[in-house]
Amino acid sequence: MRIKATRESIQLASSIIRKGGLVAFPTETVYGLGADALNPRAAAKIFEVKRRPTFDPLIVHIAEIEWLEKITRNIDKRVFKLIEKFWPGPLTLVLFKSPIVPDIVTAGLDTVAIRMPSHPAALELIKLSQTPIAAPSANLFGHLSPTTAEHVEKQLGEKTDLILDAGKCPVGVESTVLSLVGEKPVLLRHGGLPLEEIEKVIGKVARKSKRKKIQSPGQLARHYSPKTPLKIIKSSDQIPHNENIGILLFQKPAVKINAQAVEILSENGDLREAAANLFSALYRLDESGVKIIYAEPVPEFGLGQAIMDRLRRASRTR
Ligand code: TXA
Ligand code: MG
């Protein structure tokens, strides 16, 4: 349902966010598809609805500066200089994340992208929700970012619980994404805030290296892969009987499994729950000290495609 953004409709939208639902909302850059950033199952819905074949890390939107320190770690002077000048506004900062940010939001990265949008409807929605909102642009995978609520309705119509309509987005291109996790600031995406403006405040900014493709999200480089070798099996009866192994199961097994570490992504075989649990399950298996991880495949539709994409990449690491 698409409704005009008013105090009442934003109130309704915030209750949907608090209950784990999805709300498309206006920002000054483009419309975002938002969910509670601290609720992994809600965040999983975003990937499902966007039909992303991989898990790309999401931007976490805040309305109050207190959240910056709850969500990130090791912030330095550069961060404060930039946010003083450009927040709220179209600047996204990539910083080290704190443990409260679920892995599905950051695609298993140790960093999180964060911004404070300047659109009054976005700020109001985030404040009333009393939680940060994770949101990518509200388009289907491979489509252009939406700058009107009609664009969103055409692409995601029935799949969101609510679309807040505030007309055209004033900036119309996505935010500028800047990484501040290294010594040198690195521009990851050109966007609504010109690079020169940023350089006036913190000096020279490096461009994302084309050769090394570093930090380019959605691409192999920095995405989480377990250190332990991972093998995808055909079905659960192929699991070898051996103590020193870890097993990643899609759902509750019919027979008892003997292994050092077993992780079940979703007892009832729910892909959304499985996606929400994937990265943390892999972390735990990695830390359990097993020599090899056997992973049961998940059905390859909906979020299952993204899960299998991650498992295949993990199985290729060595
Ligand atoms: O203007 C915007 O940024 C809009 C509005 C809704 O805020 N959002 C947006 O989100 O464009 P999305 O998901 O379409 O693009 C987010 C970008 C992607 O390039 C993503 O890979 C990158 O930010 N990103 C997110 N988290 C990251 C991280 N931890 N490290 C590096 N890049 C990250
Ligand atoms: Mg996008």
Number of helices: 10
Domain count: the total is 2
Mean pLDDT: 90
What name goes with the CATH superfamily of the largest domain?
DHBP synthase
CATH architecture of the largest domain: Alpha-Beta Complex
> What are the secondary-structure elements, in order, as H or E?
EHEEHEHEHEHEHEHEEEHEEEEHEH
Beta-strand level of the residues, as a percent range?
15-25%
Give me the Rg, rounded.
Answer: 20 Å
Q: Describe the main β-sheet briefly.
A: 12 strands, mixed
Shape: globular
Helical content band: 25-40%
Q: Gap between N and C termini, in Å?
A: 47 Å
Q: Low-confidence stretches at least 5 residues in length (pLDDT < 50)?
A: 212-222
The small-molecule ligands in this entry are: threonylcarbamoyladenylate, magnesium ion
Account of the 3D structure:
- Residues 212-222 have low confidence and may be disordered.
- The radius of gyration is 20 Å and the shape is globular.
- The chain has two domains: 2-202, DHBP synthase, CATH 3.90.870; 230-315, Threonylcarbamoyl-AMP synthase, C-terminal domain (Rossmann fold), CATH 3.40.50.11030.
- It has helices at 7-18, 40-50, 66-71, 77-86, 103-106, 120-129, 149-156, 195-202, 271-287, 303-316; strands spanning 2-4, 23-25, 32-36, 59-61, 72-73, 91-97, 111-115, 133-135, 162-165, 176-179, 186-189, 206-207, 230-232, 245-249, 261-264, 292-295.
- It is 31% helix and 19% strand.
- The protein binds threonylcarbamoyladenylate (TXA) and magnesium ion.
- Magnesium ion (MG) binds next to loops.
